[in-house]
Amino acid sequence: MNADKLLDAKGLACPMPIVKTKKSMDDLATGQVLEIHATDNGAQSDLAAWSRSGGHELLQSTEENGIFKFWIKKG
Fold this sequence. Notes:
This protein has 75 residues and is of the alpha+beta class.
């Protein structure tokens, strides 16, 4: 999946992946996609809930070798 920006949040514990995601989303235009890489297990539920509450769309999430990858479209 193509993204307009990549956020590397690996090694960060809650709530930092969300804080960094919000900051990165502020730099994007509506409709652009942010790809996030995180290792915090809580990021799965946190980013899904944050996307919904912020009016964004979680397009896809995967887990590969302990790295969670998310693609969020800015609403």
